[in-house]
Amino acid sequence: MKSLNKTDIANLLPHREPMLLINELYDIVNLKSATATVDVKKNSFFVQGHFPENPVMPGVLIVESFGQAAAALTAHGLDKSTYENKLVFLMGVEKARFRNPVIPDCKLLLKIEAIRSHGRVWKYKGEAFVDDVKMADAIWSATIVDKK
């Protein structure tokens, strides 16, 4: 089973540091599901100003991490000619629940699944864990568009 490291992911996504949040994508089932990791560190850009006395990863960046993992899963599974010169944009978040705060230093594990696709529109669901404790879950949709 193939896995993607941060360099592989950067070759699939337009995101760059510091906004490239996912470090690895593995357990990939082509266009179906994967697991991603995010290293949440004490020196992460978002921790410095997001409650400096009680640092926590913002929920919106957990959702962004879900989106990046889903975009990488989709880009990896599609034929390169189909994905070349395209971008994946978040369309909507139907449900996002933040069950526990994500505190640095930890490894956030994202289990994502493509629920369905219709043309260029995809729907996904995901769960985020730290040490087997569910931190968040979400359902979201995204679309593949031409780069302009």
Can you tell me the CATH topology? Thiol Ester Dehydrase, Chain A
| DSSP, total strands | 6
Strand order of the largest sheet: 1-2-4-5-6-3
Uncertain segments:
none
- The domain count comes to 1
Note the overall shape. globular
Q: What class, by secondary structure content?
A: alpha+beta
Order of helices and strands: HEEHHEEEE
Strand coverage percent = 35-45%
Q: For the report, how would you describe the main beta sheet?
A: 6 strands, antiparallel
Mean pLDDT: 94
Distance linking N and C termini: 34 Å
Helix content: 10-25%
Folded structure, characterized:
By secondary structure, this protein is of the alpha+beta class. The chain has one domain: Thiol Ester Dehydrase, Chain A (Roll). It is 20% helix and 43% strand. It has three helices and six strands. The protein has helices at 6-12, 59-77, 80-83; strands at residues 24-29, 33-40, 86-98, 106-118, 121-130, 133-146. It has a six-stranded antiparallel β-sheet, with helices on one face. Strand 4 and strand 5 form a beta hairpin. The longest helix is centred in the middle third of the chain and has 19 residues, at 59-77. It is globular. The termini are far apart. The model has no long low-confidence stretch (mean pLDDT 94).
